[in-house]
Amino acid sequence: MWPEILRESLRDARRGWLWWAIGLLLYVLLILAFYPSIKSDPSVNEIMHKLPASLRVLFGEDLTTPAGYVGGRLFSLMPILLSVFAGLTGAALIAGEEARGHLEFPLAQPVSRRALLVGRTLTLLLLLLGLGLVLFLGTWAPGQVFQAPLPAARVLETAALHTLGAWVFGALALAVGAATGRAGVAAAVGAGLGTLLVVLHTLSGQVAALRDLAWLNPWKEALGGSPLLHPVSVTPLLVCLLVGAAFALIAAPFFQNRDVGR
């Protein structure tokens, strides 16, 4: 039954997803449109070198090259945007539906709660992958026009790291919502933790304890591994995918046994 739940959930979410995709594409185009005006200006890098070390970790030090500019101005803030989308969407798919009284009807059908959880989890993953595709195409293709050409493979891998990084926090929000039925708490946990770990990544350049624990941060490879310059191992992608799936598995028994709608 979960394929039917997946189709219905995607149909219900398509309008909200479309607005996010349009907003994301416009944001990408706006950032890229400024590149031709600064790519030959060495004073930009002089300004970057004067920034605190924590900000240089996030935004980089060279905004005159396509990889430095796209990585520092565009992808550096993408984890926050994608975490917010993932957290809100993950919380809405079960806990949000329950708060609006829309979950009783599907559960009244011959559908197991496990199938419902699988369908909603896959919905979240596909919505995020769709945004990742928009991010890839919106960065790579217009980059050729705005004098910021980058190899398609590097942009695709970078977009995948960001997308699956956000998947971790979206799946966490969905799991918390399924286990507790509290949409606000679920959204705050998912989006809040995703954003907090971006901040901790920026501080890891100055705080040794955070640097030692950086391997636990899903954003480590996306923000600190220069994926626009170097090939990405499949390992961090698989780890993020599996961690998100594990959150859904952990939430399954809680969702199975609690009273929905009370």
TrEMBL record:
The chain crosses the membrane at residues 17-38, 74-96, 117-139, 159-178, 185-208, 228-255. Keywords: Membrane, Transmembrane, Transmembrane helix. GO terms for molecular function: ABC-type transporter activity. It comes from the Bacteria. One of its GO terms (cellular component) is plasma membrane. Pfam families: ABC2_membrane_2. The keyword DNA-binding does not apply. This is ABC-2 type transport system permease protein. It comes from Deinococcus metallilatus. The lineage of its organism: Bacteria, Thermotogati, Deinococcota, Deinococci, Deinococcales.
